[in-house]
Write a structure and sequence with these properties.
By secondary structure, this protein is α+β, with helices and mostly antiparallel strands. The longest helix has 33 residues, at 312-344. The chain contains 14 helices and ten strands. The protein folds into three domains: 12-183, no CATH class; 195-302, no CATH class; 312-384, no CATH class. The chain is 40% helix and 19% strand. It has a ten-stranded antiparallel sheet. Residues 189-280 form the Replication initiation protein-like C-terminal domain. Keywords: Initiation factor, Protein biosynthesis. One of its GO terms (molecular function) is translation initiation factor activity. This is Replication initiation factor domain-containing protein.
Length: 390
């Protein structure tokens, strides 16, 4: 039997960046970057003097966002007879800078990550004052991450969930994300999760427990990581959850190996080995396969392939598993009710469908399952070829 190719994927991404670095968006050196979409970054001189001469000089010089030294010179060169007037104008300028940064942040998240910044919240987290959820720019209500700002040395904290990473890297590459973050003065990643799926029943939970006894998870530095077992059972004795953890949540490397099929409630062989990495250099994005393999002997034996398109067999199984997990909830919650409606309306499929699905939802083409677009045709093909796909 030919084993399925096992690729490393990013399943979580979190980083902080200076809020002020957003003034450098138009100077991004890789690829085409249209500066006009970001707007003019506010300056003290332009705000308080309202003179066009300096503004024109800045444009001709190509300096859309002056450096801190240039900004200090502008402040020092400006004089006023009224201290209160100057303070008010400084406050107004800070407000304009804040609005300009938020405008740029929204455009950047959309253009680079394909993410839409949701409504701003008055509460934050992680010692930040404000926050906002992230959604897909394609529409939908699935939370794909969070953004925090306001505090912590004027930085932004961005978290992208596992489903968010599936969405993001369906349209870009880790190398491109590296280029952007490097340009915006990000040097370290707060957290990045690297995951490998196994559909062959080789890297199972029991196999990982065996490998832990052989010290295959020891990276060669510090104390040897401990083992945590998290199994749950139904009342009839069947497994509900099968998972082990290696290390601790405070560790720089924290492993989770679990039965993904049980978690997603799908009838398939599907295990996932996931390494949660904290405080790693940004350069990890340039070679996630190499970094994963170098973590320990356990990661080495998984032997991830070089980056390339997944084999069709792997795509089919991942697509069907993801879709089945989403549909299972509907079948469990509403199957009997829909059947009653079907019988009541004389077994008329069209009448049933129109009675339970609202027209505005039918017309909203942005309503989708979280299954990536690349899988939709594969899922539809299986569904149409069987009386009952699941």
């Amino acid at each position: 039997m030919q084993l399925t190719e096992r690729n490393v994927k990013i399943d979580y991404l979190a980083f902080t960046m200076p809020f002020c670095s957003l003034k450098s968006l138009e100077t991004y050196p890789h690829g085409l970057n249209e500066w006009r979409k970001y707007g003019i970054y506010p300056t003290f001189h332009n705000h308080v003097s309202h003179k066009d001469a300096f503004f024109t000089d800045v444009i001709k010089g190509g300096k859309w966002c002056p450096s801190d030294d240039e900004l200090n010179e502008q402040v020092q060169s400006y004089t006023t007879d009224s201290k209160g007037e100057l303070e008010q104008k400084i406050n107004d300028l800070n407000r304009e800078i804040y609005l300009a940064r938020m405008h740029r942040l929204k455009l950047w998240l959309s253009a680079v990550f394909g993410l839409h910044l949701g409504p701003e919240r008055d509460r934050g987290g992680y010692n930040y004052d404000r926050s906002a959820p992230l959604y897909s720019v394609d529409g939908g209500y699935e939370h794909l991450g969070m953004v925090f700002w306001g505090g912590n040395n004027d930085t932004i904290y961005i978290q992208i969930s596992g489903e968010g990473c599936t969405h993001v890297f369906n349209g870009t590459s880790p190398h491109e994300i590296y280029n952007w973050l490097n340009h915006l003065d990000v040097t370290m990643l707060k957290r990045i999760d690297l995951a490998v799926d196994d559909f062959d029943g080789v890297f199972t939970v029991s196999a990982a427990m065996r490998d832990h006894k052989c010290e295959a998870f020891y990276g060669g530095k510090g104390p040897k990581p401990g083992l945590g077992i998290s199994h749950k059972y139904h009342g009839d004795g069947s497994l509900q959850q099968e998972m082990i953890t290696v290390g601790s949540r405070e560790s720089r490397v924290y492993w989770r190996i679990y039965n993904k099929a049980l978690e997603q409630k799908v009838d398939d062989v599907w295990h996932r080995s996931e390494a949660e990495l904290k405080g790693f250099p940004l350069e990890i994005l340039l070679n996630i396969e190499g970094i994963f393999t170098g973590l320990c002997e356990y990661a080495q034996q998984i032997n991830p392939a070089r980056p390339k398109t997944l084999q069709r067999s792997g795509i089919v199984r991942l697509a069907i598993n993801s879709f089945e997990s989403d549909v299972r909830w509907l079948r469990k919650q509403a199957s009997k009710t829909i059947a009653r409606i079907f019988h009541q309306l004389g077994n008329d499929y069209e009448a049933v469908f129109s009675s339970i699905v609202r027209k505005e939802h039918m017309d909203d083409l942005t309503l989708k399952f979280r299954t990536p677009d690349i899988y939709q045709n594969i899922v539809a093909q299986k569904f149409y070829n069987r009386e009952c796909a699941f």
